[in-house]
Specification:
With about 230 residues, this protein is of the alpha+beta class. It has 2 domains: about 90 residues, no CATH class; about 110 residues, no CATH class. The chain contains 8 helices and 9 strands. Strands 1, 2, 5, 6 and 9 form a 5-stranded antiparallel beta sheet that branches. β1 and β2 form a beta hairpin. α3 packs across α7 and α3 packs across α8.
């Protein structure tokens, strides 16, 4: 027995609404801006440059150093000065975690004294508002200093784009080894409280619709990833 045209139409009917709300784990909900893909927003994990007071992530630090030298190549001739100011330190005799692994030992031996540690530069720039990349480097002309300040701001912005560091509240649930988050989309009802579809207790979050300035009633759906 075949389906009528009306039944087929009803079966294929669907609707789409953009995400406007996001809630990581059991934290508070926040607006979903959309400038970062959902996968990156949910699954980003911290990429530390130090742990326990010790510098780590040599590969990232070297990428940062190369980027800084590339950005400042046309500003005087200070590449060697920056390498000396922000050096890669060779492993100390007590650094068993580095000396016990030939690959790590070779990497530090090849970079120490030759390449720039861009992580040290970033740490210095972000430690205080008045810090400058050329602090401790003599012989830099005032005209070059202003240009280096401009590149320092671009360098920090570049790093923030390179690695999407999560805020303190992220979606990772370590005890379950999975990501937990909720996405919300506006219903056809215009104001929070008007929606009869919200489950009890209501879990809708007040998020202002872009450009309209009115609250939306949101239904949340929890998606879990392992």
């Amino acid at each position: 027995m075949g389906m009528s045209d009306q039944a087929c139409s009803d079966a294929l009917r669907a609707s789409w609404r953009p995400r406007v709300g996001y809630r990581p784990g059991e934290h508070d909900a926040e607006p979903f801006v959309g400038d970062v893909p959902l996968e990156a927003l949910v699954e980003r994990r911290p990429v530390p440059l130090a742990r326990g007071g010790r510098e780590i992530a040599l590969d990232v630090r070297l990428v940062m150093g190369r980027q800084w030298l590339r950005m400042t190549a046309g500003i005087g001739d200070h590449a060697d000065d920056f390498v000396a100011r922000y050096p890669v330190d060779p492993p100390a005799p007590g650094d068993a975690d580095r000396l016990a692994h030939p690959e790590a030992w070779r990497a530090y031996a090849a970079a120490a004294g030759r390449l720039m540690d861009g992580g040290k530069l970033r740490d210095h720039l972000t430690a205080a508002a008045g810090n400058r990349a050329y602090d401790g480097i003599a012989g830099i002309a005032p005209a070059d200093q202003s240009r280096l300040d401009e590149q320092a701001a671009r360098f920090l912005a570049w790093y923030d784009r390179l690695i999407a560091q999560p805020p303190a509240r992220d979606a990772w649930t370590p005890e379950r080894l999975e990501y937990r988050f909720a996405c919300a989309a506006p219903t056809r009802y215009g104001r929070r409280g008007d929606c009869k579809q919200c489950p009890a207790p209501r879990r809708s979050v007040p998020v202002t619709s872009a450009g309209r300035g009115r609250p939306l009633c949101l239904l949340e759906r929890l998606d879990q990833f392992v």
